[in-house]
Amino acid sequence: MATNLRTRDGGPATSRSASRRSHGEGPFRFLATAAGVLLLAIMAAIAVFLINEAIPALRANQANFFTELTWDPNGQQVFGIAALAFGTVLSSALALVIATPIAVGVALFISHYAPRKLAAPLGYLIDLLAAVPSVVYGLWGLAFLVPLIRTPSQWLNEHLGWFPLFAGEGAIGGKTMIAGSIVLAIMILPIIAAISREVFLQAPKMNEEAALALGATRWEMIRMAVLPFGRPGVISAAMLGLGRAMGETIAVALIFPATFDITFEILTPHANSIAANIANGFGEATQIGRGALIASGLVLFVITLLVNIGARLIINRRKEYARAGA
């Protein structure tokens, strides 16, 4: 027989606990709402600042900002974002193609293959890679990777030169698009691996056990029960890594040869990006040059924002994953 608990003043205990929850919920809701509004205000302020600083340079530009390949805002006041945007997208896409399969494999190994004593230290080690400063990656790429990649680049050019990415004449290897993309891939790999690992660990255990009970091997169980569930999370992790690669500055500034042309030849010294160009040119820029660099930063801001919005939309497409991650 159920009994109603009462407090000393005769009121129900449940009413009193509900009253405490309501008193605590109000301030928390206010702080959460204020934090969200503050974040939106900061992003809006950044956008307004970039637009305000970029307008004078865009008015002084003697060419089309979106199609011009030349970048000379300090002299002839002729500059365009086409080559820089192309290099940013191509290098980030190559880094994504290199990093995503490796990151997914690492995440699956940690979550479903490695013994528990090995999985935890390996997970911590992968997470620590994200804490390494980007300048360290850039120096490593400049001192170690650039000389190392010269011979493989020449081999690819000789045997697979019919493919546009590996085509090219003259100098092969050195400071190239592929070298910078490999460094970017190493930098974004911990982000993709960490998020993918957490998604795979949240896969329904009943589905995994059911697949194994039906006689499936471990790989078949992963293919049928884990990968379909984790696909939205992996895609969103990859898109977050893509946004990270697009905004990288110091590492690519040390490796890219800072050219202004559009070419798919990733083995030749033709590479640049918006972030690298800002890092290389801001110190010597005139007032118009500084405005031009800020205008290019505005383009990068919009691209990165769209990438992150796309990641959030992909996450929300899968209600099961959204509830598991809540």
Characterization of this structure:
With 326 residues, the chain is an all-alpha fold. It contains twelve helices and two strands, in the order αββααααααααααα. 72% of the residues lie in helices and 1% in strands. A hairpin with a 5-residue loop joins β1 and β2. α7 packs antiparallel against α8. It starts with 12 loop residues before the first helix and ends with a helix. The model is unreliable at 1-5 (pLDDT under 50).
Could you name the key traits of this structure?
disordered N terminus; 72% helix; globular; mainly alpha; 326 residues
Order of strands across the widest beta sheet?
1-2
The helix/strand series, from N terminus to C terminus, equals HEEHHHHHHHHHHH
Mean pLDDT: 84
> Proportion of β residues?
under 5%
Number of helices: 12
Task: Report the strand count.
Answer: 2
Radius of gyration: 26 Å
Main sheet?
Answer: 2 strands, antiparallel
Binned, the helix content reads over 70%
Poorly predicted runs of 5 or more residues:
1-5
Alpha-beta content class:
mainly alpha
Based on CA inertia axes, which overall geometry fits? Answer: globular
Gap between N and C termini, in Å? 37 Å
Oligomeric state of the chains present here: single chain
